[in-house]
Amino acid sequence: MELIKIEGGKSLKGTVKIDSAKNSTVALIPAAILAESPVTLENIPQIVDVKRLGEMIGQLGGHYRYDGDGNEDFIIDSTGIENVPLLDGPVTKLRASYYFLGALLAKFKEVKIGMPGGCYLGPRPIDLHLKGFEALGATVEQDAGVIHMKAERLKGAKIYLDFPSVGATINIMIAASKAEGTTVIENAAKEPEIVDLSNLLNNMGANIRGAGTGEIRIQGVDRLMGTRHAIIPDRIEAGTYIALAAAAAEEVKIDNIIPHHLEALISKLQEMGVDIEVNTDSVTVRGKKTIKAVDFKTSIYPGLATDLQQPLVTLLTQAEGIGKVEDTIYSDRFRNCYELNKMGADIDVVGRTAIINGGKSMRGARVMATDLRAGASLVIAALIADGVTEIGNTYHIDRGYANIEEKLTNLGAKIWRETVEA
Ligand code: EPU
């Protein structure tokens, strides 16, 4: 078993450069297979999910390669792609593999793939995606964990989402970009990653208006071509390092970000008394001895992102007073709290709510990253704990945080990996 080990108690100082957004990238790669010539994604994040999507392109008969000194460009050439069923292997390892549903349906009018994997955060149905595909004219069959969709033709439709699901909005946008006529998605998700996808597809030749609002209009086109695209910065990686700096930094600059994407987080941290200076494309956090507990609920964008809830819970263990956190998006995203309690935290979880009794000293322990952002919350806890913390299930962390040891070492942390007997 591989462990990330962290010796806590170092005061962090310096600059951390944020990578491109994971949750954009994982939609952009499947969308790129609709282009009839290569698509180049600039500044690709060096995360495991990208490799897995690349493997899926390979399974389909397409090609991808990295280019540039730091492997910063990711070039997807889908000219040889065939409609091969994606039943096992990488498809089961990440959630975003389901974007091949929309992409292959648009390209071949038929698709067969296994159910996606990804973090367990409570049940994560994909009914809204499938209803959207049906509205566009596809028949959907599900059998033994395999989804099979077929359409004579895809025809634009008006689709109202019962919930503004990020994944369903993205999948329908991808499929509708090559449907006949106009598709209107109402109650669409507004996350910045949706706007990023719309920009890529439009640069490939699609006709999409309204991304970033609750109503997205997609006028289908016959052909899409290759392009170059610079991916937006990762607001969740940025928010994680901001929370981390609030907990453990003397002074850390979080660079290469769009602060506007993080407004809900920044104002919540200001309410806690965190010293945070906002600049055009960076923020600087100066750690302070005293922070106040706050309550918050996660919500859809521009509200406070559920993906930042777990890192913030760790920060609340250090605040004065009692904080109450409700996750309105996922029913089971507090499993990190049990691990934090092993390190000295005092957190009660009741359903979708965590009550954090702050002001606790943390101590090193062996803990498990139960999902990606749980891993991030444990890394923050380890940085402020006395002694050495050993974090298992490191593969969760590697799905979303590129070069985490290097980034934290540069800030003065003591962090390393070790493989031990399970
Ligand atoms: N939902 C349904 N039916 C659907 C789709 C969603 O009931 O058909 C429910 C889900 O079960 C969940 C809620 O709606 O309770 C939100 O789901 P959404 O579809 O918005 O999320 P997602 O597309 O599955 C993406 C990110 C998540 C992030 C959420 C919310 C990717 C690959 N994943 O998931 O990221 O939490 O949006 O912003 O983009 C992470 O990065 O750690 C992560 C989990």
Number of strands: 23
* Oligomer classification: single chain
The number of distinct helices, counting runs of at least 4 residues, comes to 13
SS-derived structural category: alpha+beta
Rg calculated over all Cα atoms: 21 Å
Chemical compounds bound to the protein:
uridine-diphosphate-2(N-acetylglucosaminyl) butyric acid
Strand content is 25-35%
The neighbouring-strand order within the major sheet is: 21-22-1-23
Shape: globular
Q: How far is the first residue's CA from the last residue's CA?
A: 5 Å
Helix share bin: 25-40%
Q: What does the largest sheet look like?
A: 4 strands, mixed
Average per-residue pLDDT, rounded, comes to 96
Detail the poorly predicted runs. none
What does this molecule look like?
The protein has 422 residues and is an alpha+beta fold. The protein is built from 13 helices and 23 strands. It has helices at residues 22-32, 48-59, 99-108, 127-135, 166-176, 192-204, 235-248, 263-272, 309-316, 335-342, 372-384, 394-398, 404-410; strands spanning 2-7, 12-17, 39-42, 63-67, 73-77, 110-114, 139-143, 146-150, 158-160, 182-186, 207-209, 215-219, 228-230, 249-255, 275-278, 282-286, 296-297, 322-326, 346-350, 353-357, 366-368, 388-392, 414-419. β19 (346-350) and β20 form a beta hairpin. It is globular and about 60 Å long. The model has no long low-confidence stretch (mean pLDDT 96). Bound molecules: uridine-diphosphate-2(N-acetylglucosaminyl) butyric acid. Uridine-diphosphate-2(N-acetylglucosaminyl) butyric acid is lined by residues 23, 26, 95-96, 119, 124-129, 163, 165-168, 189, 236, 305-307, 329-330, 372-373, 400.
